[in-house]
Design brief:
The structure is a homodimer. Chain A is about 30% helix and about 25% strand. Chain A is of the alpha/beta class. In chain A, strand 20 (about 285) and strand 21 form a beta hairpin.
Chain lengths: ~425, ~425
């Protein structure tokens, strides 16, 4: 008898976890991702801030799921999904499915101001991270020979928009990079001139954590020299300029950490979406009206059985994958959504690192800050980073950076990429790579 | 009193070595490179074959020369050199010099067939290496879903042109990658179908070494399954096709390891050049007619005082740099070229690695092959790799690959680069990175 065919779109935390747990004897599974690797997103900001190399936080999907029965992996991209005909159009073929899992995650979102994307890149992909890294390192290289005072200040200014975990981690990492690593490298750049400004619309950073944690993070950021502006709304972003009420900030680098939204494919499904393009799933994570279709991870909008709105974080994505895999393995896919077990999110806690020995963490009512939170952060991220090789290399890179105050990946791979005006604003003919 | 100003163009082995050795108390030195990092070229083929990440073989120039007196480092590119006016035009400024050191190295050379460059990339830059890596990994991804027998064979075929060290190392590394690392990852790809063909016009590989070494290398390559074609001249290269006498080889990846030539800037100097654009320097490495201009490294054509033609290898570049730095530090720059000490090359030996436990090495009349040569190769490359951090990480990556038969950097960073027809021939719309 032919086994039922499950098609999984996306090899992020949810897609990988589902494929690990699904019973390959009973189902044929096809996993599709545009990339050949799974990316450990929580450390991507360290690639952007020159701490780690890309392969150190990426693992080939085929390696992670090596030897899994009944699984086929395709490097391809979904371009059209027809829920009624139960088929998905990829770039290179069209696939029929019995069950579909939508797990293609989030993209950087600009709350309707998509024209800002060119001037203020977000941090969701490898390309984002390497571009940001190169653009910031290159601005320092230019500052080194810049004779104009104002222009040099502009080159050394980085604005980070959004005081959530991404914004806080980026701002902290860049402040450290500027203060320790780069300051020693350049002779004409005064570290005092380099400036990181963090802009947050609300009245505190890390708004999803306890107030005391927000205050601790704010102190830690300020101790690193980050200029944190709370209650500050961005009015406009243009090439090298952020406009806030009453001020125009000129900055060579502007980074967007203020929001994400669901992958635009959700808008083509013809199902009801919430703000940000997320899918309003049933309690069992199925898509309303399509009992054989489930959504997992960052594209899901759900208030769970306990009344908690499930956040867009990797533990939630993995828990959803586990939930749906158990559903399949237990045969519940034959039941109606209402008969199936409802998903409940188990909050493992939340943490953010601000810099060397600086972090905040909370697990239920237990809170940590400073060095101990930072150690906990390191430990948790090493444990979840996939692959023994990567764990060892990343641990070594961290230890070395800790001891020397140096970041190891201060490499401008490919200066020609900087030509792209969304990251670099120089009209300057840029050095080409190689030849 | 103003110190004499030495301008150094290029931060390869020669440029870095010179800057380390020059007396910064007596000279002002400006070092210019298009990149912000020094690249350890001898390991670049391991980036191409998925063994290492780029930052692991690159080190920021500013870090290497950190604290050096009298040194200014510019990330910029020479676009015009006027030897008579003693000035160099960079992209962002023009610099006057008292003494000039030309050390900008070699580029891939096609012996007048520059139209082949699009179809058969060489391996000189980071971009070359990451493109080759991605193109080969991507061909395997395509082969996995390919239903057409001939097309699958084409996707799994890699042709390496040139049986010198670069060609031999690339061919060996790709044969290993295909046989061990990739074979296990794919379910529809038969490892037996994957093919690496090495084409050499002469009657042996590694023609610069002893005949017995060439034979050992040939045996080692064949043991890895490489199809070595000796006495075979390439007649034409087109998109995905190499034409040799009586045969048309179709291959998804064609790599050029058959030759390099001096950087094209040498042709603008108005001095006498040899074949391949190299500068015919005086015995002291100065440029004929310009006592204050020296050339170092791969752009030099010289038969030294002992009658040895100096090869284009990193030890020669470093020895030249040392020679010229001593000349400056000892005041000999005030003498005429004929009065200055002549350069003599000290041949430290030569080695090439073919794969896991396979290598050849010769030092004068002492020869090694197999495992012992391979250990010697590992040791020498670790010693010369710049930076303690990189040494440790690379050693670990090698040990891990040795134990697991897996290469750690099998990452397609940015599939959109593959759109470039010089590396990929697919007209296929390629998966974009991110979003």
């Amino acid at each position: 008898m032919k086994k039922p065919h499950i098609l999984v779109l996306g090899a992020g935390f949810a897609g990988i976890e589902f494929c690990k747990r699904i019973d390959g004897e009973r189902f044929d599974v096809t996993l599709v991702d545009r990339q050949n690797h799974h990316l450990f997103q929580p450390l991507l900001y360290q690639v952007a801030s020159s701490g780690l190399a890309v392969p150190e936080i990426a693992q080939p999907i085929r390696t992670i799921l090596s030897g899994k029965k009944g699984l086929q992996i395709l490097m391809d991209e979904a371009v059209g999904i027809d829920l009624r005909a139960k088929k998905v159009e990829l770039r290179r073929q069209t696939i029929q499915y019995d069950y579909l899992l939508l797990a293609f995650g989030a993209v950087t979102g600009y709350f309707g101001n998509n024209q800002w994307a060119r001037h203020a890149p977000g941090l969701k992909t490898v390309k984002d991270a390497t571009r940001i890294r190169q653009s910031i390192l290159y601005a320092y290289e230019q500052a080194e020979t810049c004779e104009d005072d104002l222009e040099q200040r502009r080159l050394l200014t980085t604005v980070v928009i959004g005081g959530g975990p991404t914004g806080v981690e980026l701002a902290g990492a860049f402040a450290e990079l500027a203060r320790h690593s780069l300051a020693r490298d350049f002779s004409n750049v005064d570290p005092e001139r380099s400036k990181v400004i963090l802009i947050e619309a609300g009245d505190r950073v890390l708004g999803h954590m306890d107030k005391r944690m927000s205050e601790a993070a704010l102190r830690q950021l300020r101790a690193l020299g980050v200029d944190v502006r709370l209650n500050t709304r961005v009015e406009n972003i243009d090439e090298g300029v952020v406009e806030i009420e009453g001020e125009r900030i000129e900055a060579a680098n502007i980074l967007w950490g203020a929001g994400v939204e669901a992958h635009p494919l959700t808008r083509t499904l013809g199902v009801e979406l919430s703000r940000g393009g997320k899918i309003l799933v049933e309690s069992d994570l199925s898509v309303p009206g399509f009992d054989e279709v489930f959504a997992l991870g960052d594209i899901v909008d759900l208030v769970d059985a306990k009344g908690v709105r499930v956040p867009g974080v990797s533990p939630a994505a993995m828990q959803m994958a586990k939930h749906v895999a158990s559903c399949f393995n237990g045969g519940c896919f034959e039941k109606t959504p209402a008969e199936r077990k409802a998903f409940t999110y188990w909050d493992k806690g939340t943490m953010a690192t601000i810099g060397r020995s600086k972090a905040v963490a909370e697990v239920k009512s237990f809170r940590m800050r400073g060095f101990i939170a930072w150690l906990a952060w390191l430990f948790v991220h090493l444990v979840f980073l996939i692959g023994f090789r990567n764990k060892v290399v990343v641990l070594f890179q961290w230890a070395y950076s800790y001891l020397t105050y140096r970041k190891g990946a201060r490499i401008i791979h490919s200066a020609e990429d900087l030509d792209n005006p969304s990251v670099s604003k120089e009209n300057d003919p840029l050095p080409r790579v190689g030849e």
